[in-house]
Amino acid sequence: MPVLTSLQSNTVSLVNNYDTWMFDCDGGSWHDDQLTDGAFDVLCLLRHQKKTIVFVTNNAMKSRRHYKAKFDKLGIEAYMDEIYGSAYASTVYLSSVIKFSKEKKVYVIRMSGLEEELKDEGIQYLGGTDSSDCTLAPFFLADFVLDEDVAAVLCGYDSNITYTKLSKAFQYLTRNLGCQFLVTNEDTTYPNAYGVLPGGGALSAPLRYALGKDPLCIGKPSTIMLDCIRVKSSRVYLPNL
Amino acid sequence: MPVLTSLQSNTVSLVNNYDTWMFDCDGGSWHDDQLTDGAFDVLCLLRHQKKTIVFVTNNAMKSRRHYKAKFDKLGIEAYMDEIYGSAYASTVYLSSVIKFSKEKKVYVIRMSGLEEELKDEGIQYLGGTDSSDCTLAPFFLADFVLDEDVAAVLCGYDSNITYTKLSKAFQYLTRNLGCQFLVTNEDTTYPNAYGVLPGGGALSAPLRYALGKDPLCIGKPSTIMLDCIRVKSSRVYLPNL
């Protein structure tokens, strides 16, 4: 088998010792459109040995469908049910871990990737890419109608962050009793090919600061991501941490 | 003197003991358009006794001119040089406390009140109400041209907060060596007649979070506000804290 001969013997020995393998995506398995050196060979070896593979990423901008397309483009064998982005993990957390009521709604500060995942899981949501929230028109609290069914606020990277979104989220978190404060990830920065920008975690910081409390984080390094993988993947054996 | 007879004798005694009197504005001297009970009588007494009066406010949305008009409307005798908003104090801090170079520029995340004060002090600035920053169009880091003359970022309450502004501010703070990170105030919330909204301090939180460091705060309760009053008002005697 050519794959094995191209790998160090200690790599092969390591592979033999574990049944489930988890890989980071952007900046881990690849950088922009370039596969990481050795990634292809290691993944081929794991497939050959029938290992369970999970791809995890804190990037909640893209849905699993988007990631599947990226894997295909890079020539990596990957399946939808192996991909856990923080957008998908957030919806799994709501639907399968805490059994979020189908009658309740989530107020979203996020981009379309998250909305796609919420739709797929049948979770009602407000905000996100709604044009009445993605606006720089003044927010008048006197005109705001509180939706009492909003029982969670979920924030992530949102390049369309507005004061209207922050203000509405703040109303739900302070006026709807028990409303949960969730973030897809706590990444302070968003490194990319041209430099570094404020990350998804930074964009929920106004709410942390105004509320004086931290949200529950779904993405890495939170173990909630692992809980979501456990719930959805019967093939995955993950020891409790 | 009718003023004195309407006041408690212990108030009169207190007034006699101090030369300089500082008053908060919104929520202190008045609530919305309603003067606080007793405020008018106390201010008349202080004027009659030739005391030095200073009005301080963390509200950086309005310039001193705006505040002077508010005092006039409420029928309170007040003069421009007695009014210290955090917008004005921030410009005094730059121009008179740290002697900010006229060749350098400030990148502003704020509303027009601050820009008016910066103009009055002859300080160059970028951002603020500039339409190329007040936009929800995507921010492309590859297209961003860093202005190497930006030596400070000054943030406050800005209902037109955008990812473009946060991204540009982050570039200046991380790429221009020694660029100062200043906030007009650290108010977590902005209480108003209809409820509570995220405050000016909350809107600089993405930068605090992404940078992993706190800014220098100009407004109350920072003593920098007092330094600015000392610099500008020779009549004011303020003991060192």
Oligomerization category of the chains in this entry: homodimer
User: What would you call the structural class of chain A?
Assistant: alpha/beta
Largest beta sheet of chain A, briefly? 5 strands, parallel
- What is the count of structural domains of chain A? 2
Question: Residue ranges of chain A: pLDDT <50 for 5 or more in a row?
Answer: none
Helix and strand pattern of chain A: HHEEEHEHEHEHEEHEEEHHEH
- Strand arrangement in the largest pleated sheet of chain A: 7-6-8-9-12
- Assign an overall shape of chain A: elongated
What is the CATH C level class of the largest domain in chain A, in words?
A: Alpha Beta
CATH topology of the largest domain in chain A: Rossmann fold
Strand content of chain A: 15-25%
Mean pLDDT of chain A: 89
Q: Give the terminus-to-terminus CA distance of chain A.
A: 36 Å
Q: How large is the count of helical segments of chain A?
A: 10
Q: Could you give the count of β-strands of chain A?
A: 12
- Tell me roughly what share of residues is in helical segments of chain A: 25-40%
Largest interface: A-B, 39 and 39 residues
Assigned CATH architecture of the largest domain in chain A: 3-Layer(aba) Sandwich
Please, what is the CATH homologous superfamily of the largest domain in chain A?
HAD superfamily/HAD-like
GO molecular function, one term (chains A, B): alkaline phosphatase activity
InterPro entries (chains A, B): HAD-like_sf, HAD-SF_hydro_IIA, HAD_sf
Enzyme class (chains A, B): hydrolase
Catalytic activity (chains A, B): 4-nitrophenyl phosphate + H2O = 4-nitrophenol + phosphate + H(+)
